Amino acid sequence: MTNIRELINIFSEPQTISVFDRFKKFPAISISGAGNSSSKAFIVSDLMRFSDEQPVVWIVNDKVEQDAVANACRDWYSPTIDVITFDPPEDDEDEARSQTLYMLKALLDGERKVIIAPYTVFMRDMPDPGELAKKTLTVRKGEKVSNVELFEKLIAQGYQVSNDDYLERGTYLGKGDVLTVFPVNGEVPARIEFEFDTVADIFEYSQDTGDIVRHLKTLSLYPLNIEFKGQHFFEFINGKALTIDDELEVTDEHFEAWDEIFAKRDKATKLITFTSFPEDAPYHCGLRYLSVLKYQDLLDLSHDLKEKSMQDWRVIFFTKHADTMKGLLDDKKVVFSADLVPFGGDASNIRVIDVPKEDVLPHSFQSADEKLLVLSDKEIANIREEKQHKKVSERVFWEFLTTLKPNDLVVHINHGIARFDGLDRRMVDGITREYMKLGYAENDKLFVPIDQADKVNKFVGAEEDAPKLTRLGSVEWATLTKRVRKETESIARELLELYAKRKRAAGIKFTVDTPDQKKFEESFPYDETPGQIKAIEDVKHDMEKDGPMDRLVCGDVGFGKTEVAMRAAFKSVAGGKQVAVISPITILADQHYRSFQKRMEPFNIRVDMLSRFRSQKEQKVILGKLARGEIDVIIGTHRLLQKDIAFKDLGLVIIDEEQRFGVKQKEQLKKLRTEVHMLTLTATPIPRTLNICLNKLRDISTITTPPPGRLPV
Fold this sequence. Notes:
5 domains
C-alpha cells in the first residue's frame, strides 16, 4: 500500500509555468479553467513549494466545498503543512472562541498552514489584534511566580479547570508543583513545573504518548474571554499570507457586507481568484483543467493509457483493484511503475497507486496542455468490486466512521444531538477499547464503544441553523423526537393537500404550438439532444393540459436545460401570459437575462431583469411595467418573491436551482405552486425533491445526454 499524501513531490519541476510567472509579477492574479478541487489543490501546492508565502487562507462557498478542498489539499500538500477546516459552531460560544483564536494564532505567527472556510465564517466578528496582544499571558522559564498566582491569572483569562487528565483547549489542571494547561492558541498542552515559587521548566507534551514534544523558554496563552466585536478577519492577515477566492458566489443577502469586508484586505498580500470566466488582463491566467469522462470498460481504459504513454502524458492512477489493473496493463504491454516516485526517474510515465479500501479516492482531472492525467476507479464504468466477507452493515458503519471529523454533529438514537470529539482509547476493567467521544450540552461527555456505534448517525440539516446540543439525562430528547414525529405527519398532510389542490385546479391551458413558436425553435443554433427533445415534449404536454404544471427538469451543467425553459417561456408569452424566471444569485440571473434577450428580441418579446444590478429608480419603473403587462418575461433573484411584486397576468414561473433558495423563499414558491405553471431546473436535486418526484407527487424529466462536442466541466 502507498501513502497517497504529498503527491506534489512526484513532480520535480514547477508544472503551471504561466501561473508561476504571473504570481511573481502581480500581487493579485485570477485563474480560469482550473477545474475541480483536486486540480486547484494541485496548482496551489505546486506554487507554494517554490514560494515563501506562509499561511494559505482558502475561502469557499459552503461546507461541501470546504470538505472537498480539504481532502484534496491533504492529498497534494506535504504532511508537514497542516490543513485546517475552520467552521466554529454557532451554538457553543466557548468552542467557537477556542477554534477562532487557534486559527488567528496561525495567521499572526505566519505558520505554514492551509485554512479553509466558507466566506460566511469570515464575516463573523473578530477580536481586536492590539487588544489580543495586550491581554496575552506570557510565562517565562525562571520567572518568579507561584502556581497559585498563575492559577488566578488563568481564571482571569477565562480558562476552566479540566475534569480529568485529558485536557481540551482552554482548560488547565494543577497537581502539586505542576500546572498543566492547554492554550487556546496551542497545538498540544504544556506542562509548567515550579520550584520554590519559580518556573523551573516548561515543555509541551503529547497527550497520547506522554512524550515531551519540546522544551520552551516562554509560553504564550491567548485569553479565552476577549471580546469579539467590531473587527474583521482580514486584519489578521500579514504580508506573507496567500488568500484564495474559490469561485465565490456570494448570495444577495450577504453581498454588500462581504464586499465591504473584502475591500479592507491588505492589497500588498497575495491573492489568487479562481473564476469561471476568462479575462483579458495581464494578471489573468487561462488554464484547461478538465474532468475525466468515464471509461466504458477496462479495455477502453488500457487503450487510452497506452496511447497517452506513447504521447508522453504523465498518468497517476489511484485504484483499489491494483492487482487487476497491473495485470491488465502487463497484458497490453503498457509500461508502468507501482511506486510513487518522481517522473523522469525511470522509463515509465504511468504510476499505478494501490489505495487501501477504506481510503477516499482523489478526484480525477486532466490537462492536455500539461499532458497530465490524474485518474481513479471512479472513472471506470462497471468495475467489479472485489468480494468482501464483511457484512453490508459493517461496511456501511466503517464508511460512516471514516467520514466523521471532529466537531461534526451526530445523533445518538437514545441520547440525542452531540458533537463528535474524535476517537479515544480507554481502559475499563483492565480491557483497552476504542470509544467514540461525544460532547453534549453543559460539557457532558458520552463514550460510545465502537461496537455500539450503529446507534450513532451523522446529523443532516441546514448548516445556517445548526441545532443545540442535547442535555444528557433530561427528557429533552424524548420530547423532541415526539414533537418531530407529529411535525413530520403534519408536513406529509400538507404536501398531500398541496398536490391534491393542484390535481383539482383548473390551471391555464395553452394551445398547441403556433408558427412563431416553430420559427423560434428553428432559431436554436444547435441540434437538440434526445434528452432535450423528450424534456421539451414533456413540458409542452403539461402546459397544454387542464391542470397546472409542476415539473422538475434535471440535467448536468451544459446539457441544455435553459433551452427547455426558453421554449416553455415562449409558449407562455404566445398564449398571452407573463413569465417569471427566478435564480438564486444575481450572476446567474444576469446570464439568463442576456440569453433570453438575445433569443427573444427578434420576436418582439419584452424581456427585463430585476436585481441589485438595477438602481432603485430603475426597479420602480420595471415594477410599474410588470403590473401593466408591458414586460413579457421578467428575470431576477428572490427579489421577484417580495410583496411589492405584482403581475398583470402571470402564467409560468421558471425556478433555477430551487435547492439554493432559503426557507422563506421556498415558502413563497410553495404558495405559487397552486396558482400557475411551475418549471424547475436543477443539476443537483436535493433528496426531498427527488423523493417527491419518485413518489409521483411531482413530474420529472432527465437530460442525460450531453450536446455533441461538449467538453467535461
